[in-house]
Write a structure and sequence with these properties.
The chain has 303 residues and is mostly beta strands. It folds into four domains: 116 residues, Immunoglobulins (Immunoglobulin-like); 92 residues, Immunoglobulins (Immunoglobulin-like), CATH 2.60.40.10; 34 residues; 32 residues, no CATH class. The chain contains one helix and 19 strands. The longest helix is centred in the last third of the chain and has 40 residues. The termini are far apart. The N terminus and C terminus are likely disordered. This is Ig-like domain-containing protein.
Length: 303
């Protein structure tokens, strides 16, 4: 049977029963400290003699820093079986870390308190991810790499860069940030100051308490174009070509419009008709078949 009491109700506790914690595959280990993976499940055991009638036992659990006993909810479950009382914590988070204590009450006697058990919750910084960008100087290609970790806990870590198995000591910038979930993530940047070569292997290596060995992520240089044209020059060339095309279209349109206008004017002149009146004239040179002179009075021109 489980019930809620205040700390004053168990102020006379004197004996500490050994408390053990078990995560997946760790049942039966008696530890003063244990690690649990974030998102996993943890089982705390508060043992008592097997001959004790477990149906008459009441168990209490609390954690340092809390002012009340732990209560059952969707992630915390309490059970009492023969030989022990158990606390199941499901989907462990970083906030669950701390020192846990238990007490059991049987036949009006309560025992517990003591040093308790320290639960450490960790999150591994894997998988790692490398993002690459290249840049150009003169006719050579250079490289920038960025290694990103997954969210991890606790904070302490060690990150190194390697080139073909040899550790790199320069050109590295590493930044650690804390997330809203009390986790941490790291972004480490490497700028290669020498022209890159085909087949070169760059490796980001991370050490953390949550993993037994270093986590590695590698980037292999492939398809290096030593005479590659810088991207910004390509963009400028494309823009220049577009400007030339636009200017050519404008000039062509202007020239064709002018030619068409002139052509229409010439057609207009050829198709015009002049109507006039002839009068005899004594002051002009004889024209015509009769040798008479005429004065031409233009009346109008019809187009």
């Amino acid at each position: 049977m489980l019930k809620t009491l205040s700390f004053s109700d168990v102020s006379f506790l004197g004996i500490l029963y050994v408390v053990s914690v078990c995560s997946s595959g760790d049942h039966g280990r008696n530890l003063a400290q244990t690690l649990a993976r974030r998102g996993g499940n943890v089982l705390f055991r508060c043992p008592f003699p097997f001959h004790v009638n477990h149906s008459a036992v009441t168990a209490y659990w609390w954690r340092d820093g809390n002012k009340s006993f732990l209560q059952a909810n969707g992630r915390k479950r309490f059970t009492v079986r023969r030989g022990g009382a158990y606390l199941h914590v499901l989907n462990v988070t970083v906030a669950d870390a701390g020192m846990y204590h238990c007490a059991v009450k049987y036949q009006h006697r309560t025992v517990g308190k003591g040093t308790g058990l320290q639960l450490l919750v960790y999150a591994a910084p894997v998988p790692l991810k490398i993002v690459s960008t290249s840049f150009h100087k003169a006719s050579s290609t250079f490289l920038r790499l960025q290694c990103q970790t997954a969210e991890f806990h606790p904070k302490e870590f060690n990150l190194t860069w390697h080139k073909n198995g040899t550790r790199i000591l320069t050109g590295i910038s590493t930044v650690q940030q804390e997330t809203t979930d009390r986790l941490y993530e790291v972004i480490s940047s490497l700028e290669e100051t020498r022209p890159i070569e085909q087949g070169t292997v760059y490796t980001c290596q991370v050490y953390h308490v949550s993993i037994s060995g270093p986590a590695n992520c590698s980037y292999i240089v492939d398809n290096v174009d030593y005479h590659a044209v810088p991207v910004h020059l390509i963009y400028r060339s494309i823009l220049g070509i577009l400007v030339i095309i636009i200017l050519a279209v404008i000039i062509f349109d202007h020239v064709t419009s002018d030619m068409l206008h002139r052509y229409r004017n010439e057609e207009t002149k050829r198709n015009s008709v002049t109507i006039g009146k002839l009068e005899p004239c004594s002051e002009c040179t004889p024209v015509g078949y009769d040798g008479e002179c005429f004065k031409i009075h233009f009346l109008m021109t019809i187009v």
